[in-house]
Design a protein that fits this description.
The protein has helices at about 25-35, 50-65, 75-80, 95-100, 115-125, 145-155, 170-175, 185-190, 195-210; strands at about 10-15, 40, 70-75, 85-90, 105-110, 130, 160-165, 180-185. The protein is an alpha/beta fold.
Length: about 210
C-alpha cells in the first residue's frame, strides 16, 4: 500500500468539468499549487484520453517538483501514463481492480457514502477515502452524510478520511474537528475572484486548526 504523509491530504483542491468564471483545469491546478494545496485532483471527464494525458502530464511534473500530490479522477490508465501520484475512483469503478492495475507507488483514493463502503475500500487496499459532507452543485448525485456521518466513517476505518462537498473557509474547521484528515474543495477556489488567494485562505484555516490541537 502506498504511504501518505500526515498532511498530504489536508488541503485537497479539485478541478472540475464545470468551468467556473471562464477558468480551465490548468488554471485551477496552478492556483492550487501556488496557493499551498497539499493535493490536487484533475477531474475532467469531458476530455478524451489523449487530451487528458497531455494535460495530466504537464500538471504532474510541476506538482511533483513542489511536493504536491497529484491525482487523476477515474481514468486509471491516464493516471499511470502521465506520472500522476495517484488515482481517485468511485464505487462504480471497481476499486479492487484499480488497486491491482496501478503501480504500487500510486495512491488510491475511493469515494464512499457510508461505513460499509469505507471498510470495503480499506479491505481492497485504498490509501484514503472521501465522503460528501454537504450537498454540492458540482456533484449533485452525491448523497451528503453530514458531520455525524463523517464522524461515523472516521471511527470505522484506519484510513485517512477527506471531507468534500460544500466546504469553504467558514466551515472547514468543523470538518477537521470531526476527524477528517483533510478538506477537499472545488467551488471555494474555482468561483473565487482570486483563486490563489482563496487557496491561501483555506491553507491558513487548516494550519490554524492543526496548530491549535
Amino acid at each position: 500500500m502506498a504511504k501518505l504523509g500526515p498532511r498530504a491530504l489536508d488541503l485537497y483542491v479539485l478541478t472540475s468539468a464545470h468551468v467556473f468564471a471562464g477558468r480551465d483545469h490548468e488554471e485551477i491546478a496552478t492556483a492550487a499549487i501556488e496557493g499551498g494545496a497539499s493535493a490536487v485532483q484533475l477531474r475532467a471527464p469531458e476530455l478524451d484520453d489523449d487530451a487528458l494525458t497531455s494535460l495530466a502530464s504537464s500538471i504532474a511534473g510541476w506538482a511533483r517538483s513542489k511536493g504536491v500530490l497529484f491525482v487523476v479522477n477515474d481514468r486509471t490508465e491516464v493516471a499511470a501514463a502521465s506520472g500522476a501520484g495517484g488515482v481517485h475512483v468511485g464505487q462504480g469503478d471497481d476499486p479492487e481492480g484499480v488497486r491491482r492495475r496501478v503501480p504500487e507507488r500510486m495512491v488510491l483514493g475511493v469515494s464512499v457514502g457510508d461505513v460499509e463502503e469505507a471498510r470495503a475500500a480499506e479491505a481492497v487496499g485504498a490509501d484514503y477515502v472521501a465522503v460528501t459532507i454537504w450537498a454540492t452543485a458540482t456533484k449533485p448525485e452525491a448523497v451528503p452524510v453530514g458531520i455525524d456521518g463523517l464522524r461515523e466513517v472516521v471511527a470505522a476505518t484506519a484510513l485517512p478520511v477527506v471531507g468534500i462537498g460544500g466546504i469553504d473557509s467558514g466551515n472547514a474547521g468543523e470538518v477537521l474537528g470531526a476527524g477528517a484528515a483533510g478538506i477537499a474543495v472545488i467551488g471555494a477556489v474555482a468561483t473565487a475572484p482570486d483563486p490563489i488567494a482563496a487557496v491561501k485562505e483555506l491553507r491558513a484555516v487548516v494550519d490554524a486548526f492543526r496548530e491549535g490541537r
